[in-house]
Write the structure tokens for this entry.
Amino acid sequence: MQWLTKSVLFFTLCLISLIACKEDEEQPMPPQVVQDETPYLLEYGSFPAPELPEDNPLTVAGVELGRMLFYEKMLSKNNEQACADCHEQKDGFSDLDQLSLGVEGLPGKRQAMSIFNMAWHSNQFFWDGRADLLRDQALLPIQDPLEMNETLDNVIAKLSASQLYKDQFIRAFGSDEITSDKMALAMEQFMLSIVSHDSKYDRYLAGEVTLTESEERGRILFETEYNPFFPEFSGADCAHCHGGINFENDQYLNNGLDTDDEFTDLGREEVTFDPNDRAKFKVPTLRNIALTPPYMHDGRFQTLEEVVDHYNEGIKSSSTADVTVTNTMETGLFLTDQDKEDLVNFMKTLTDETFVNNPEYATPF
């Protein structure tokens, strides 16, 4: 009997071992994380093809990593603030506060600019253009004491402790080594992928919709130049600075907000050290302008009506004010109340609901 008991025990152990081996064989090994160089297909409608950086081609993995970093709160000192907190998609990737508050509760120096169609900006970034490339712009808010107030070394340490990020860096760059350069390139890719090209105005250009009478009058006013000699034919002359497919001109201008004695922000001069650049700021796009109040570099105007009033009758002379706006000081733009309403109604046709609801730009978490 003893030998029978031992035989049964041996047979049972062998059977268990075989079953375990069988289960091991049936369980697939987890896939190895490898670099994925699948190109990201940028959709831009009727826009001209952008000049994307040749040394940082957009890939699906790179854009996704950039999106993760854009929404990642570990980039801040207290792990409570991400880039997206001051650039919300529903607000055209801008901030409705006049000045954004950083992790220390301190206000920023200027109103947060909107982030979209960056691929069609041919000059630098920020209101004063202090960042030559979008990848340079990506890292500066992290280190700014008024914003996220963190060191790049600390951010790298935090991200390196996450297997999720190590895997995504492999997919994007072929290595799990996390560096600030790779972070910058990934965030550049994501910001370049954010495109707004499907407003009512775009559909109007495509012949898909018609503008209302008010919107059409506003469009004509927007595109017609100021004419002091024939007021009945004079327009608002907006397209001079906000022209082209992206409604901007890639210049830095002083638009007559203050006199020389009233300047509190030197603007572009702080970067170039050229007095001729005093109080000049980057001309922003007017796309999605109805979504991105307040307006101007310091957020002094809360409504589009206030902005129109400024150009109609509020221009101030200074040593660096652009001649296009100071030329209208004597007479104003001749805009009636109806003209102002029409102009604002046209600018509202630049709102792109598809863009603000695109899940590809939303948080991945």
Remarks:
- The chain has two domains: 60-195, 200-349.
- The first strand starts at residue 252 and ends at 253.
